[in-house]
Amino acid sequence: MTAAQAENPILKSLNAAQRRAVTSNASTVAILAGPGSGKTHTLTSRVVWLVQQTGCQPSDIVVATFTVKAAREMKERIGKVLGPDCERKIVLGTFHSIARRYLSAYGKHIGLDSKFGIADDGDSRAVIQRICKRHDFNIDPGYARSWISKKKAKGPAAEAAPNKKQPENPSLNECYREYQEHLERSNLLDYDDLLVRCVELLREYPACVSNIQAVLIDEYQDTNGIQYELMKLFAQARQRITIVGDPDQSIYGWRSAEIRNLYRLLRDYPDTDEISLEENYRSSQSILDVSLTVIQQDKKRYQKVLLPVHTKGARPVLRKLKSSAAEGDWIVSEIKRAVMMFGDMLTYEDVAILLRSASLSRHIEAALGKAGLAYRMIGGHKFYERKEIKILLDYLRAIYQPDNNDAIARIINVPRRGIGDTTIKRLIEEAEQLKISLWSLLRKHCQGSRKATTKILPKMEAKLNTELLRIISNLQTQAQQITEDSQHTLVDLIEKLLSQLDFKQYLESEYPEDHEQRWQNVQEFLSLANDFVRDAANLEDEMLPEIDNVDQVKDDSILGRFLANVALASDAQKNDEGAEKKAVITISTIHAAKGLEWPIVFVPSVYAGSIPHSRAEDLDEERRLLYVAMTRAQALLYLSCPLYGSQGMGTKVELSPFVSPFASAAFAKQGASFNRPILEGVAKILGRDLPSEKAIFAKLPTMFSPEDNLFPVDPIDTRDAEGQEDAEGYRPKGPKRQRLNNQGYGNDDEEAAEERPWKKEYSTTMEQASNFTMASLPGFMSAGAHQNALSAAAAAEAEKEAAAKKTVKMGTTRRKADQSSLLGFVTTASKKPAAPGGGFGGPDASMARYQLAASRSAARMAAETKAPELPKLPAVDPSLAKHKLASGNALNRPSVIKKEDDKSSKKRYHCFSSSPPRPAGAEDVKEEQATTQEVPAPDRPATSFHRTTFVSAASRGGVRRPVGLGPPPGLDRLRKPFKPLTITRPAKPQ
Ligand SMILES: Nc1ncnc2c1ncn2[C@@H]1O[C@H](COP(=O)(O)OP(=O)(O)OP(=O)(O)O)[C@@H](O)[C@H]1O
């Protein structure tokens, strides 16, 4: 690196490999590296470098990202360095949004009406469903939808070539043809069409992109065939491409992402400068190690080196819980514990719960709701999908583009105009038969020029005429004025629409229970439109640069752009934006979490059937999904698995095969003790200031449990051997017992578990007796332990200095001498072997040694004060499970069957004792425990089935009632009408 480069602010924050990638003069640069190695950071820096150092105009750069969220973040990062002006000019967005911009500007050259609308997923599904129904096709509409999408995604060549292996169902082709005809008639493009038509445009009119000097693609591993074509076409003028990607994170196979695109790139651009980034800046060493162990099970994968920059940190956890409900409760308790134990350093915003499928969120949401913790959903229910917002959007679509049959069909009877579903269906069919739009047909009917086939009663016609047609026609005029007259804005238009529909009144009558909330959503929608109008003052940001001799249509309809923005912003939710300001927990699907990171990550439901998903076709892709989820974590990673899943009335599940082979070796069974070295390690990874012990302690609530011990570490399966259940399908046979405490709800049905009336938020010191050690408190360390740690750290520091002296020789070729060729990279194992033991190991930094030494001392200390390990016995003797209380006079206390060998029974009652726990014997403390300090679950206290001695005795007449209490209650009852006695008693911990 030259001296000037060293001073350059763009390059300062980069390591050598990243710098090389940013400054490479090669026309094609491929950066392939593992998660957290700074790929996105490098790509952003390269954009800045190209603008500042090579004289590229921002408007001549195309940057394609995979999600709207990623595009927004990258824009922000670039804007910070280059300023808002430059940032706006860069053509940056998802493939779909970039394609839309080109199609609205130049689409007329390929015969596209520039006012095309976008059919979102819901629209496409509805159209296909109608076609299948009309023709009685024996195909699943969902399958037909993805079949059509795949066909389009593969590009025109694949579309023409028939599938030889599997003969195609002729109905599918027919469905495809009709679907496409429908979209054309309605002047709609679906998501796939945006790409397909853009490819067509750029092939036929390359002049549209003659200005493009550089094309940069993020998350390249998830591009599909058509996106690859598009990338090449965008770059056709200068052939200057930079891609970043990680084959291990390819998780969009179902969307036709093609891992083969990596090979294609190297084949099509043989001079590609190959750069691999090997340092992982995101996660602790233990998180990285265990994630690599998961991904390395895929023997066919592309091997690559990923070295941790951070210290070992807390060991990732694999927690077993009894049921999904218990899993949700445990997650809540662990989040609370972490946030509390780190003082102000961590907030709820630092926590993400990543799910294989959105449907798994029910229990988690219920648990968070019960605990009053705010959360936001990514990939969940979207703001734009709310009923009231959809209605308004459909009206706006109809105003902008009356030929949008689907929008018209959905609003024809909203608010109610007395037009039933059958009539609407007939109208649609009539329009389709006549090959005219629904709007034209309605006009014909209402103008009296068509009457025969559809029996719309005159009254309805009048209503349609005065309401729907009038509203839409009037507002169409106003919509046109928006662009010509600045006095009229999009917000005015929406307000007028609301008043003409009397929308508030409509919501009140239609949704009496939650109309206020819905009206609030409408207000939010208005403010969203207002923001859009304000930003549209910078209309130019969407404009593509003028190119000589190529006509461009100015996309100056604010309404049209607003609607396109809504259709493409499928994962940018308005409610998210609001929530982002507050410290809230994130619940996300793993797919939507791509490219993001959080200090604390939970991955629940790690069982076969969930991940890998029962319907998944590609197991390797499922493994990669788990890998993506795990590598989102910076400091603390938790996986969990219930004994019974939430689907199918709680069927028994097995731990995911992706983790089961090494579960006990690689994971801790419960959350780490947050002692000072662990806290300091996390602070270092996150680059945050750790509050003092005093400050942390001051904020801890009284009776707060500092350990992850509210739930049993090894939950007991209480169902019978065959998993037999009674007729209800879930509740086990046998007498109902009083629940002992809130731990392990596995033998209850899920609902019952969710509706538990009371749940303690803490455990008492006494319950902690067996594991209450000073070392488990944050910050505690004995002087001896501290001394040992200091000397270990000093030794490690010396070692580190010696290692730093070994410098790496730079090669003279494009590729760094110590980096494997990209082809080698994607085909053979790297020269640098993975850390021994499947990725466990690697160089210990001084911090790690310090931590290890410190925690060893702490563990030794703990061992000295630890109560003896007690045999794990069920809280209630199993033989008693079948015991039934006789309804009559069997009021005697059931006799506990004494076990010969139960010598420790006495010890199990220590919860009732105020004496300190007995010291541990000469028990060895393993090295492994030193860092993680697993805490045994508290033993269950004494339990019995007894009814009170008093009742028992009184009913036998064995005890005299004290005089002052009056006559026995039984006598009184005889005189009064019978009133059942109901006591709502919390399930009390005993
Ligand atoms: N040279 C560096 N020095 C310090 N931190 C860095 C460096 N490069 C990247 N980082 C940090 O590492 C983290 C991960 O970076 P980034 O998101 O760019 O990684 P990525 O390779 O794109 O990850 P993924 O593939 O998982 O999306 C970020 O917090 C980033 O700021």
Automatic annotation (TrEMBL):
It comes from Trichoderma simmonsii. Pfam families: UvrD-helicase (PF00580), UvrD_C (PF13361). It catalyses: ATP + H2O = ADP + phosphate + H(+); Couples ATP hydrolysis with the unwinding of duplex DNA by translocating in the 3'-5' direction. ATP binds at residues 33-40. Residues 489-564 form the RGS domain. Residues 709-762, 852-990 are annotated as: Disordered. The lineage of its organism: Eukaryota, Fungi, Dikarya, Ascomycota, Pezizomycotina. CDD domains: DEXQc_UvrD, SF1_C_UvrD. One of its GO terms (cellular component) is nucleus. This is DNA 3'-5' helicase. Keywords: ATP-binding, Coiled coil, DNA-binding, Helicase, Hydrolase, Isomerase, Nucleotide-binding. It comes from the Eukaryota. GO terms for biological process: recombinational repair. Its EC number is 5.6.2.4. Residues 424-485 form a coiled coil. Residues 12-284 form the UvrD-like helicase ATP-binding domain. Gene3D superfamilies: 1.10.10.160, P-loop containing nucleotide triphosphate hydrolases (3.40.50.300), PCRA, domain 4 (1.10.486.10). The keyword Cytoplasm does not apply.
